[in-house]
Amino acid sequence: VAATQPSTNWHLKENAREHHTSKFSSEELIVRRGQAFTITFNGTEQPEKNLIFIAETGPKPSKATKTLATFDISSTVSKEGWSAVLQTTSSNSVSISISSPHNAVIGRYKLSVQSGSSSPATLGTFVLLFNPWSSGDDVFMPNKAECEEYVLEEFGIIFAGNKNRISSFGWNFGQFQGDILNICLSIMDRSLYYRQDPITDVSHRHDPRYLGRVLSAMVNANDDQGVVLGNWSGKYEGGKNPSSWTGSGEILQSWKKSGFKPVKYGQCWVFAAVLTTVLRCLGIPTRTITNFSSAHDADGNLRVDEYYDADGNHLERGADSVWNFHVWNESWFTRNDLGPSYSGWQVLDATPQEESGGIYQCGPASRYAIKEGEVDLDYDCPFVFAEVNADCMYWNYDSATGKKTLIFSKSTEIGDSISTKAVGRDDRVDVTRDYKYEEGSAKERDIYKKARKKLGLEDKFDPTAPTQDEIEQKPDISGKFKVAGSLEVGKDLNLLLVLENLQSDAKTVNVNMSAWSTLYTRRRVNEIWKNSISVTLAPKEEKQFPIKIKYPEYQQQLTTDKTIQVTALCHVEDGIQVLVQRNIILDNPALDIQVLGEAKVNKEVVVEVAFTNPIDTEVKDCVLQVEGSDLLQGVLELRIPPLKASEKSSTKFKLIPSEAGSKHLLVNFSCDKFADIKTFKMVNVIN
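Structure (tokenized):
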């Protein structure tokens, strides 16, 4: 006899509260593994007798792959598998508490019940997620405040700039908004791993290591038509400039709406922010990490080689590079494959830099393994180790003879001020010591040598015993660039080149100087200025040479990263060359946000954003974009009339907050002269 279709009460509110899933706005039950949830249903005859439940997920559920479970009513929760415990019964309905194992496959399940000899009746579907609140789960995080931040917080701060001037901007992760959970589930079903072998792929989805690696590949578009297409050219036609995004929601929604075509364009923080959204959504504690002076070691020798010609021009020779900053992720889970000391924070990097196992994916690399130089452990430890700890070699290259000479090397340049947002506060926390021992210490050098040895590199190049063309001679002069005055877009740039003669006889120096606009990856985009001077320095003399680059000279050439690299290659007669370099970041003018009145749930509140044009020409094409989880739906875009020189604009708009608590409003302002001026404001919403 076919059973009548039972009607199910999923107790959405109560279960969500117990399972820390209340922030999802869903009509479907969303629960975490290894923890009981309660459902009530009717329409089964003699409910308490011989009920069998079936939970199944994936394309071909089976017990062998742990994607199918059948279980009957028992008196206690099973330690190993799924279980159902009877709560209450009445004449026509039954309440059951269902528990999944700590290592259950995550994803969308179908739940059915079978009574006696009748065929199974579907109760409906639910989504099962990782459970960082449960001590048996691989992602268990004992500190509750950290669970709140790294799983439930929808606002983040990403650090950028360079190590001399760290800047930051807000990001709306928005992992609980709208359709994001469904989009995250479809990301898993579109990976190369799933396409090649869906049954095996789904059976591995109990493992945060596996999913972290798969999702690091899926967030970039390389190989698999993933979410975001990278672009580091400085030209972003046909898409959005990477610096214009303010949250992940718009990106993930666009990917789905376009029929899963990669969204244009991203750079490192976009990949890291989208991966944070996806992993937090699935319940894996995750944060973004910014590494300043980050090495991209393309040839795996834990060294970054940079080449210059005689005029001081940087040569695009070799694929190694140093970025002003690079953003990746850390996710928290155990490493049963490596052992307990390697558990905890794991590095994942979704930016497509180097292939790993034939596709653009990176990690998980245990942060502890990186610190200890254990570069032979899974996954991608040599690449991450180099990002924070490579040595820098600066070479002079003569293209006519093919001869290269070492200008100088630095072992303390890479991996500076490694930063992340504080738990529960909008502050920066420095985690450099978690990645490496103190720069310049004997321990740090020992770890570096240990890492090279594990990679079989100790013979090719030992920083302590260079080969003939790698012997560093002592320079006769030293140099540096000093900033004189403010560093603001719209103002002239005033610098001083300071040269000092270190010897007790006079020196003649020919100096070739240039300034280029660059991306944050230090890739040169446009030449702004160049000049050469010849100077004589008396014994031990220090001289200063003023450099002025006017705003009209750099305005057209500047990239949206607002970075300028100034270089001076100094040829000392009868001596060795000295390279002087500085990466400068210009500040945008400020935006001011005011919330006019109290912010209350479901009540309108007015926000005012003010901007003053700081330059003496008109700015036009002004656009304001605003977003914030629980403050407004999606992204609000407002066009603003042109602003004359020194004119102030004030724009007002309304919000209707949907939930109480401390929420963040993110604002991005752009016009033809200033790109992507970002700010955020905390809004305390009351009931």
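The domain at 144-455 is CATH 3.90.260.10 (Coagulation Factor XIII; Chain A, domain 2). The chain has 13 helices and 38 strands.
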